[in-house]
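re: that chain from earlier
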Amino acid sequence: MGKTVATTCMFIALVAGAARADTLLIDGVESDAQSASARPRSGMSMTAVESTYGAPAQKRATVGQPPITRWDYPGFSVYFEHEHVIHAVVRR
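^ sequence. v structure.
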């Protein structure tokens, strides 16, 4: 009987740990979704980004071919190819 109780306790601990890991993963996804809604979406024009989010704190020089430009805002950076957003990422 002692062995059965120990096995049952281990099983419960394992299941509880797995449930906790799932909860943490879901919380992380929820957090990313919230921050994604606070950033420009792919395809937006530079004009639309500036009218929606205001002037960036810093505009970096264009580099490369095709031309890539980066604008830095408090909390996120926006990358443009030509005049359109290709990525907006949270700065940590």
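The two ends are 52 Å apart (CA to CA).
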